[in-house]
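Notes to self, Leucine-rich repeat domain, L domain-like protein:
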Amino acid sequence: MHMLLKKKFPWKSLHLKTDALNKMNHLKLLQLNFVELNGSCEKFSEDLRWLCWLGFHLRYIPSGLYMGNLVAIDMSSLVIEDSKS
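result:
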């Protein structure tokens, strides 16, 4: 089981390249706290079951993020817009 936890402190912005996560082939749990991802989410593990992304910085969930196996997603600190409107 793998979990990546990153925190953003008020005085420092934290950016993470998606390449770092793409190499985790069997990633099942992912928690990101106030992290800005740079890059494509298309190669994220399809094994991802649980995603907690507090402080999500985008207006939309990335279209390339495979969510077919997600059973729990927590982005409770954001307002998501409908990309079709």
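- Residues 19-22 form the longest helix (4 residues).
- The mean pLDDT is 78.
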